[in-house]
């Protein structure tokens, strides 16, 4: 009896460690399959998707799954994922930046080995830092950007924007700065896209003859030029700019830049007041 009692006490004192599997929430979204089939459903929201994607047709519905290789994209109210092939490997990557170039990110968890925790009877798993892979899409081509090669690849991919290349050359940026750098590149590209060169001819409203030496000013700036002997000027402007045309013999001319790159402005002769 004593032996049986001692054994029972020993069994009771052994700690039981349960390792719970993480459960993630489901969010409303749309899965687009590679065959163009749309599935409007509730998608399991996870940091990164592996070989399969879990979804439900209703919030309380039965869980189903699709192979990641069958999926073209996933859209939720909070993020957009696209199936991207890098180095012959497909990954569902989350879009991190959008614009002239698109940036996608994939975070691969690196679980560490379970180790015995000193001073206790249990084990602890110390996860390793995750591996982050970016894919930069430009002109419909995808390029992988990793910690080991970002200093080499990023400047080459953004080399059509001199402002960014100058900044990259002058600053010691880090791998963690990639999303901010791509956002800045896209903002600068948007501004540049608004600008265009226009050719304007300034003429006399009555005679239609060219007006030379008329000052053409972009309103709100100190940017100006003067018409030549044929009444022409060329300017690089923003589509929302307004031009002011100043000449001592004519009334002030004012025009919001139209969509055309070549247009004509007519000036009316100034009225001379008699004293």
Secondary structure topology:
Layout: H1 2-13, E1 26-33, E2 38-44, E3 52-56, E4 64-67, E5 71-75, E6 80-86, E7 89-97, E8 102-110, E9 114-116, E10 123-125, E11 128-138, E12 141-145, H2 150-157, H3 162-170, H4 178-194, E13 195-204, E14 215-218, E15 224-226, E16 232-238, E17 242-246, E18 253-256, E19 262-267
Parallel strand pairs: 13-19
Antiparallel strand pairs: 1-2, 1-5, 2-3, 3-4, 5-6, 6-7, 7-8, 8-11, 9-10, 11-12, 13-16, 14-15, 14-17, 17-18
Characteristics:
single chain, alpha+beta, SH3 type barrels, 10-stranded antiparallel β-sheet, 4-stranded antiparallel β-sheet, 19 strands
Provide a quick synopsis of the model:
The chain is of the alpha+beta class and 275 residues long. Among the domains are: 20-78, SH3 type barrels, CATH 2.30.30; 195-267, Immunoglobulin-like, CATH 2.60.40.
What would you note in describing this structure?
- With 275 residues, this protein is α+β, with helices and mostly antiparallel strands.
- Among the domains are: 20-78, SH3 type barrels; 195-267, Immunoglobulin-like.
- Helices cover 17% and strands 42% of the residues.
- It contains four helices and 19 strands.
- The chain has helices at residues 2-13, 150-157, 162-170, 178-194; strands spanning 26-33, 38-44, 52-56, 64-67, 71-75, 80-86, 89-97, 102-110, 114-116, 123-125, 128-138, 141-145, 195-204, 215-218, 224-226, 232-238, 242-246, 253-256, 262-267.
- Strands 4-3-2-1-5-6-7-8-11-12 form a ten-stranded antiparallel β-sheet. Strands 15-14-17-18 form a four-stranded antiparallel β-sheet, with no helix packed on it.
- The model is unreliable at 1-21 (pLDDT under 50).
């Amino acid at each position: 009896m004593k032996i049986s009692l001692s054994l029972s006490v020993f069994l009771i004192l052994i700690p039981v460690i349960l390792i719970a599997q993480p459960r993630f929430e489901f969010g409303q979204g749309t899965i687009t399959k590679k065959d163009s089939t749309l599935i409007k459903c509730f998608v399991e929201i996870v940091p990164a998707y592996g070989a399969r994607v879990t979804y439900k047709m209703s919030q309380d519905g039965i869980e189903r799954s699709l192979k990641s290789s069958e999926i073209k994209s996933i859209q939720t109210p909070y993020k957009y994922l696209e199936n991207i092939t890098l180095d012959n490997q497909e990954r569902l990557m989350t879009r991190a930046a959008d614009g002239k170039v698109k940036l996608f990110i994939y975070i691969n968890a690196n679980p560490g080995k379970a180790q015995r925790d000193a001073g206790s009877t249990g084990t602890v798993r110390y996860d390793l830092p995750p591996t982050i892979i970016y894919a930069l899409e430009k002109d419909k081509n995808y390029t992988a950007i990793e910690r080991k090669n970002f200093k080499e690849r990023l400047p080459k991919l953004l080399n059509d924007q001199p402002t960014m290349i100058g900044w990259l050359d002058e600053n010691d940026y880090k791998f963690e700065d990639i999303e901010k750098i791509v956002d800045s590149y896209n903002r600068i590209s948007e501004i540049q896209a608004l600008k265009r060169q226009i050719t304007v001819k300034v003429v006399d409203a009555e005679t239609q003859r060219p007006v030379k030496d008329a000052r053409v000013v972009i309103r709100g700036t100190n940017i100006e030029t003067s018409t030549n002997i044929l009444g022409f000027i060329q300017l690089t402007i923003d589509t929302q700019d307004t031009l002011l045309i100043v000449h001592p013999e004519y009334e002030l001319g004012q025009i919001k830049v139209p969509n055309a790159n070549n247009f004509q402005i007519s000036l009316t002769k100034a009225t001379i007041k008699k004293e």
